[in-house]
């Protein structure tokens, strides 16, 4: 076969064919390679093979790397369990490694590790002291070949849970660490970095350029787990950094412990160190720290408030300068603040702190401190101070005004040294020294000077000499306390002029004291004497204190007498006082005895100083005063420590009364106490004279139960004429902080059972009969139970009370007063009030005892009083209701029924009073508003309406009214208007009151006492209500059944009057009253009233009259016509046919003419008629009667009052004997007189009547 040669046209085709074959072979090779790698990495078997090869490679280098199991593949991610790495003595163990990645991201130029979780890391690493020195690390040389990577790297969800690192003697535990990170080129970005390792948690973000100088920026928030000081929050902070690893600009805000803002520059030199351009960090700071206004944190620091503080730190840790300025306020007391300025200049150099100046400046003074602190070899402190304060008294709270302290100056030194710990770890020896050689102050113009100091060498305390002196007053002290608590101290005080120390204190004092022995068993020798001590109103003539050791027991005794003590407005005397303390700190006894004009006290206690406190017992005590003699019943335990004061139950008895107290005070703040008082006598509240008077009247023995209660009296008593008998008990508990009184929780329960209350009053004059002596009236109330509960919880008071009582009158058959009252009240923290009082009387029979004029009293009385507003301005309102009430009043014949009365108010400004009642066939209702009753602006409105309301129903008097009245009243006056209809009157008048007889119209009152009894006509200058202004316009209307009978008159009246009352004037009355029908009987003869009118034209007590009365006898019609006014009646006689006046009067009275009168009785009747009717020509008529009867004397005599008028009849028996017979015209008094004329000079007169007399008259002419 012969080959052929390709033509030029075929060569390119052949070349392309061979090229395709080569590419196919290469692709096949790549495919076979990728298939082999995928089989190795993408399958479990392949991944296990790769791990085995890696394990063999690592272990070939004299290290031990193991894992217990593995899951997953290298293509998607692999999990390893029980991983351990050991190299020599160093070991790393990881419980679990979990990883996930996505290889497909490599096609996008990025390797993304989607998850990396590491848990249970344990690292034990030990340094090798023999290891050769490694060459310095040059970070740039390490990173330069690696970075930038050809692809970017991203790590997500990286987390470490639980890691324990032990490096030599250091131990550290990490609870968790998490982050997200990316590396692109040389830029490292760390986000969501969280770190939790006790005692701090951290979250941060960071950007770092991985090439010199390693530019850095980021921020972090950190938080400590616990607070550093009690009462403060756990510290936290926010940090922002910007710069590079050599120089950073930082800003930081500290919170929690205090609020501090810091900013400035920090030089690290870290980049130079990491690249071997320096051997160590070059740390320098220039920071400024600012503290805002806040109270310093920590217990006991509440009184210090920083208004502004600036601190600047500059330099290196070996040479750091400190500069500070601050404004500090010190709260010394309530509303008393010391304002100071602080300045600090100091330097920190290695192990030495140099204090150039610490200055505290007040408004007038300066305290400057300087010195050094060195801790290179132990601790050494050497400080000096200077104090210069011209006005120290301005900064001492509560300093009395009488004490002035000025020009305080002092300087001194303080030194403290402590050696370094010994090789065995024991603390080094300590030494402390303080000295002042210049102490000076002026107190009330007296100069005090002093010097002294103390030393402590770690074992012994020594006060070499401390002296304080002013003028003649001097105090000196030397003391030492050696190893074994051996004590040796001497002190002396010589103060002949105490006023130099305190101006208000007078007298003199001298004391010498030595103390030897040990702290546990000191031996005390003390002599102190004070004479003529005066402080204000307190005076002590002599005070002696002695102390000595007897038989190994110390005894300190204080005695004094005749002390004058001011108590209120009086001065009490302590006649004798003794205080004795005997024993040692671990066992001692106290005896106290005080005798005074106010109280006598005995007290005996023992105790011991133990565990930094005191514990003892109150063995016995007795308190004897006007409030009773109280004696302790049992031993009570007492304890006192810095944290707690405790008093177990302590009880006293006084007769049948007991008082118990127990209390606990914790941290000088929290109080828990209980007080129990049982059966305290209420007679202690009684006024002694009132109690004695009531006991004498009632026969009550107020002290029958316990005679000793008669001597128990409180300083405050009930008002006079009141007395209590019974007992009261109280149980109270108190808990809470004593610094907040309003916040205490308080519960009080008070009760009293079967008590008595007596009220003494004097009887009224109307209740006395004749010459009966006035005996006091006693009102007796008895309560079965009184209870009061009060509590304060959450700053709110709740008060409630209950009382059930009865009032009995053993001398009365009336029902006893029984009732109950319940009250509740709430008061909020803002002193707002909300409460009510309820009254309940379901039987009103007891009213008969208080108002004897009433009988058969029935009804119920209920009330509710509401209390609102505030404690400063309370608002009182409520309702008082009288319902279904009735009573009888025999004096007026009344039977009142269906009585309903209500008094109500929504506040204390307006009270509404309304009521309804029935009497007879009629009824009455009223309504009234009382405005501002408790102020000077008080006023009242009243409306009364009724129909046929009976106001009297007696055999001689029966009256019914139908009022329709309106009235107002205030302090300016009273005004009444309306209509008063009197539909019915049935009156039979048998007697007239004294006021019905007026004085004569011609009487003039020249002067009269205010309380003298002057008749109506003389009081024309005064209103009917005296000085109370009264106005009104009332229409008085008489009905058709107004009948009046009496003194011979029998008439039915009709008519209407208009009464107009003006201020300070008698009422003006206008109108007419008419006798519709009637008759008048005189001397047994009846005259018919044909016409009768009373015309009122102004004055109410002197109306005009027009009365015509007639009598018909046989064929004669005679009568009398009366005109004029009530005070000036003008009467005239008339007749048909016309007769003389004597005959008219004789016919009218006797029934026959005057010529036919023949008896003295008829003559008396005629004369009486002339007098009573006021007939004109009365004397002529009298003469006619005298002649007709043949008398020598016939006359009417009137002496003084018209009531004394009498008819005189006289006749001469002989020329020397004259007989007179007088008959009273208005009084039933008759008399017989005989005059016997013996001669011209001697006359004998005998009178027989209401009294008998014989008079002998001898006449001498000059």
Automatic annotation (TrEMBL):
GO biological process per UniProt: protein secretion
InterPro entries (alphabetical): TamB_C
UniProt subcellular location: Membrane
Coarse class of the protein's main subcellular location: membrane
Sequence ranges assigned to domain Translocation and assembly module TamB C-terminal in this UniProt record: 922-1261
Lipid bilayer topology: Single-pass membrane protein
GO cellular component terms, A-Z: plasma membrane; TAM protein secretion complex
Keywords: Membrane, Transmembrane, Transmembrane helix
Pfam (any one): TamB
Transmembrane segments: 18-41
Protein name, per record: Translocation and assembly module TamB C-terminal domain-containing protein
Organism of origin: marine sediment metagenome
């Amino acid at each position: 076969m012969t080959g052929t040669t390709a033509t030029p046209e075929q060569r390119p085709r052949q070349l392309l064919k061979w090229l395709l074959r080569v590419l196919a072979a290469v692709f096949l090779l790549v495919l076979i390679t990728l298939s082999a790698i995928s089989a190795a990495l993408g399958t479990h078997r392949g991944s296990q093979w790769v791990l085995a090869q890696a394990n063999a490679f690592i272990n070939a280098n004299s290290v031990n790397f193991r894992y217990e199991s593995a899951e997953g593949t290298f293509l998607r991610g692999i999990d390893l369990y029980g991983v351990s790495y050991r190299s020599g003595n160093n070991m790393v163990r990881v419980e679990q490694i979990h990883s996930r990645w996505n290889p497909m991201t490599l096609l996008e130029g990025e390797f993304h590790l989607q998850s990396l979780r590491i848990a249970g890391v344990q690292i034990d690493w030990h340094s090798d002291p023999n290891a050769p020195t490694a060459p310095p690390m040059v970070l740039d040389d390490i990173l330069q070949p690696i970075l930038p990577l050809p692809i970017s790297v991203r790590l997500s969800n990286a987390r470490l849970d639980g890691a324990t690192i032990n490096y030599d003697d250091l131990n550290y535990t990490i609870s968790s660490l998490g982050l997200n990170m990316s590396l692109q080129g040389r830029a490292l970005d760390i986000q969501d970095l969280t770190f939790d390792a006790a005692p701090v948690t951290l979250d941060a973000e960071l950007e770092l350029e991985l090439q010199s100088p390693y530019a850095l920026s980021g921020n972090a928030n950190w938080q400590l787990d616990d607070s550093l000081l009690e009462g403060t929050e756990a510290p936290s902070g926010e940090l922002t950094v910007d710069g590079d690893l050599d120089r950073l600009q930082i800003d930081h805000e500290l919170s929690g412990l205090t609020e501090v803002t810091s900013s400035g520059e920090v030089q690290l030199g870290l980049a130079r160190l990491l690249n071997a351009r320096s051997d160590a960090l070059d740390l320098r700071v220039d920071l400024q720290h600012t503290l805002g206004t806040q109270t310093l944190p920590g217990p006991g620091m509440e009184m210090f408030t920083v208004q502004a503080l600036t601190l600047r730190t500059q330099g290196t840790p070996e040479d750091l300068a400190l500069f500070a300025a601050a404004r500090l306020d010190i709260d010394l007391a309530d509303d008393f603040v010391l304002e100071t300025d602080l300045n600090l200049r100091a330097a920190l150099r290695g192990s030495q702190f140099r204090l150039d100046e610490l200055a505290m400046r007040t408004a007038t003074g300066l305290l400057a401190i300087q010195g050094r602190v060195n801790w290179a070899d132990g601790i050494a402190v050497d400080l000096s101070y200077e104090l210069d304060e011209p006005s120290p008294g301005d900064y001492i709270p509560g300093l009395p005004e009488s004490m002035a302290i000025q020009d305080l100056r002092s300087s001194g030194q303080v030194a403290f040294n402590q050696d370094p710990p010994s090789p065995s770890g024991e603390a080094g020896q300590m030494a402390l020294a303080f000295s002042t050689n210049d102490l000076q102050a002026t107190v009330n113009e007296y100069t005090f000077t002093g010097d002294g100091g103390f030393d402590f060498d770690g074992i012994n305390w020594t006060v070499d000499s401390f002296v304080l002196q002013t003028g003649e007053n001097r105090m000196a002290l030397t003391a030492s306390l050696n190893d074994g608590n051996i004590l040796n101290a001497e002190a002396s005080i010589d103060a002949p002029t105490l006023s130099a120390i305190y101006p208000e204190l007078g007298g003199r004092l001298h004391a010498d004291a030595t103390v030897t022995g040990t702290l546990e068993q000191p031996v005390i020798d003390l002599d102190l004497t004070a004479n003529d001590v005066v402080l204000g109103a307190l005076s002590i003539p002599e005070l002696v204190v002695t102390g000595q050791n007897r038989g190994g027991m110390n005894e300190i005794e204080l005695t004094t007498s005749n002390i004058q003590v001011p108590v209120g407005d009086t001065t009490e005397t302590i006649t004798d006082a003794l205080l004795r303390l005997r024993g040692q700190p671990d066992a001692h006894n106290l005896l106290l005895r005080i005798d005074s004009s106010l109280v006598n006290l005995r007290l005996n206690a023992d105790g011991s100083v133990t565990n930094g406190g005191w514990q003892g017992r109150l063995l016995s005590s007795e308190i004897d005063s006007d409030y009773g003699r109280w004696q302790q019943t049992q031993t009570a335990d007492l304890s006192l420590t810095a944290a707690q004061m405790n008093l177990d139950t302590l009880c006293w008895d006084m007769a049948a009364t007991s008082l118990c107290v127990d209390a606990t005070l914790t941290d000088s703040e929290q109080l828990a106490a209980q007080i129990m008082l049982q059966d305290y006598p209420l007679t202690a509240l009684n006024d002694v004279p009132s109690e004695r008077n009531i006991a004498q009247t009632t026969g009550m023995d107020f002290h029958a139960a316990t005679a000793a209660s008669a001597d128990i009296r409180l300083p405050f008593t009930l008002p006079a004429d009141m007395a209590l008998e019974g007992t009261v008990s109280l149980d109270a508990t108190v808990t809470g902080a004593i610094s907040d009184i309003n916040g205490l929780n308080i519960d009080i329960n008070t009760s009293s059972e079967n008590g008595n209350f007596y009220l003494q009053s004097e009887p009224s004059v109307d209740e006395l009969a004749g010459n009966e002596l006035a005996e006091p009236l006693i009102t007796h109330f008895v309560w079965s139970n009184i209870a009061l509960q009060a509590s304060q919880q959450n700053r709110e008071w709740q008060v409630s009370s209950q009382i059930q009582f009865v009032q009995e009158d053993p001398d009365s058959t009336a029902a006893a007063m029984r009732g109950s009252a319940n009250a509740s009240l709430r008061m909020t923290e803002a002193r707002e009030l909300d409460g009510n009082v309820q009254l309940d009387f379901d039987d009103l029979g007891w009213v008969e005892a208080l108002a004897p004029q009433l009988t058969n009293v029935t009804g119920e009385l209920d009330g509710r009083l509401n209390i609102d507003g505030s404690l400063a301005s309370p608002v009182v309102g409520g309702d008082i209701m009288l319902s279904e009430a009735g009573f009888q009043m025999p004096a007026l014949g009344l039977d009142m029924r269906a009585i309903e009365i209500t008094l109500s108010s929504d506040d204390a400004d307006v009270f509404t009073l309304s009521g309804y009642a029935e009497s007879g066939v009629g009824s009455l209702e009223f309504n009234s508003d009382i405005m501002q009753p408790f102020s000077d602006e008080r006023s009242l409105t009243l409306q009364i309406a009724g129909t046929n309301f009976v106001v009297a129903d007696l055999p001689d008097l029966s009256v019914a009214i139908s009022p329709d009245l309106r009235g107002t009243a205030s302090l300016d006056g009273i005004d009444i208007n309306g209509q008063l209809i009197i539909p019915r009157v049935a009156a039979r008048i048998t007697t007239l009151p004294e006021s019905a007889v007026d004085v004569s119209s011609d009487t003039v009152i020249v002067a009269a006492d205010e309380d003298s009894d002057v008749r109506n006509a003389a009081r024309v200058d005064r209103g009917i209500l005296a000085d109370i202004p009264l106005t009104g316009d009332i229409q008085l209307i008489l009905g058709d059944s107004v009948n009046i009978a009496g003194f011979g008159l029998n008439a039915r009246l009709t008519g209407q009057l208009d009464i107009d009352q003006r201020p300070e004037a008698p009422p003006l009355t206008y109108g007419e009253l008419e006798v519709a029908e009637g008759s008048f009987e005189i001397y047994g003869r009846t005259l018919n009233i044909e016409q009768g009118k009373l015309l009122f034209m102004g004055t109410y007590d002197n109306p005009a009259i027009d009365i015509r009365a007639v009598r018909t006898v046989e064929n004669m019609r005679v009568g009398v016509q009366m005109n004029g006014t009530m005070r000036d009646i003008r009467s005239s006689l008339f007749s048909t046919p016309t007769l003389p006046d004597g005959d008219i009067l004789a016919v009218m009275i006797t029934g026959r003419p005057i010529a036919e009168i023949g008896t003295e009785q008829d003559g008396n009747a005629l004369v009486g008629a002339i007098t009573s009717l006021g007939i004109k020509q009365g004397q002529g008529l009298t003469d006619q009667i005298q002649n007709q009867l043949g008398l020598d004397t016939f006359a009417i005599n009137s002496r003084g009052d018209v009531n004394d008028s009498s008819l005189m009849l006289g006749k001469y028996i002989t020329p020397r004997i004259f007989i007179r017979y007088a008959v009273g015209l208005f009084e039933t008094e008759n008399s017989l007189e005989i005059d016997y004329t013996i001669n011209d000079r001697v006359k004998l007169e005998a009178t027989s009547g209401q009294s008998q007399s014989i008079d002998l008259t001898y006449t001498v002419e000059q």
